[in-house]
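Fill-in record for DNA 3'-5' helicase II.
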Amino acid sequence: MKDDEVADLLRSEVPLVVIEAPAGCGKTHQGALFAAEIAARNKRGRLLILTHTHAARSVFADRIQSGSVAIRTIDSFLVEIATAYHAALDLPLDVGRWARESGKYDEAAKRCRHLLEGSSMVSSALADRHPWIVCDEHQDASEDQHRAIMAIHAAGARARFFGDPMQMIFAKSDGDIRRNVERWEGLKALGAWGELEHPHRWLPHSPDLGEWVLEARRTLRDGGIIDLTGRLPRGLSVHFAENSASVPNKAMSMTAGHRAPISALTRGDRSLLVLAVGTERVEHLNSFFGRSMPIWEGHRRDHLTALVACVRSASGDLGLISDGFLQFVYATTARFSASSHGNRLKVQIAERCSRRARGATIHLQTMARHLMDEPDHRGVARALHKFTELVRAREDGFAEVTLDLKAEIRDAIQIGRFADVDEGFAEISRRRSFTHPQPAPRSISTVHKSKGLECDNALMMLCDKQSFSNSRYKRRLFYVGISRAKRSLALVLSRNHPIPFLTI
């Protein structure tokens, strides 16, 4: 379908329109233009854009500057509804904190869905507030999220759904993916639908790479095999290497011969996004590259969430606070462990820093005193601030320590400026949502966290059977990875453990 035909369909009088949009084919451009036009002429309410990731939300926010458009993640939108009706839904007053800490966003969505389907007054009020709803990446919607939106649509809101079943990477089992694809096909049957098919992302630099990615998408979707033995398109390179670490699932190492082409790709200052499957593989690559590139942490702060929960439940208990502090530091740094630093810090706390010290122990005593003086989030923040100063100054005992998750550490320090830990966490999270953070020009990311992003050059490694089996889910994960780069894509493949859906 041509781009102008899709644009006309979006602007038609049809109440429900579905646009199937492969990665890089102009979905965000179409959606943003449509939303801006509708918002400019809309007489009532605000057009609502719902995304599934904060990265996608940031992209829309950068392109649309209008007070007549509301942009939310679908989780935050449903949490807002649940908060307004928390008593009726038998939920705590702070639904956002409850969902975040307990991981119960799905439960909040379920209760919202029942509310919206059962109360025409509530769904009609939302339809009046948001007469147009644009749903981005709707293939990732859960059954409850989907039905909640459909209830608002049934109450009068016009709906425009964008999605790509081949980017369905949050439903991991083949059964879940099959059911979600069936729901997507059913949604297409409820209204008009079209498909974007022009690979804009790769123009003007690598059009051949763009065409190859679209063809690879069709092959992966249909259960076929991608042939990498022939002539490759301009912009795509394939390299072979094996992980020679003695315990491959705990580290990444390569022979000099295997590493040489990878070193050539990462040499210099050109922008580069290194992609891997899973946080453990990202940590291994971080060490493999000598921590020369930061890890893209995305929007979520899982370790900080755990630290905040610990501070709240500790209620000033110094032992619990120090344990929470250490667990956070262990998770966000390297070469700071219980045996190297943590146990010694706990000894200083137990002895109230009563003994004379020298070298690294003096620094540990300074950190310990912060925790002892204020056994709460403020003491934790001050101890973390001192810790980062020691690392950056390469002081005795801290010269080898590295800060891996710098954004998460920085946010933990900033929370110390607030009187209340929950208030601080909520405000820091809100600021992060509206500042639209992006990866550094050279960084390492999981494929999951790269979804919704694009980059000039990407290096995906190590592509082996462990990372990409022949499941529906892994085929989709591979597709998301290969579709990020606009100019060049390098794949590092394993011959010993080949990917089942590649011919090499």
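KEY FINDING: The mean pLDDT is 94.
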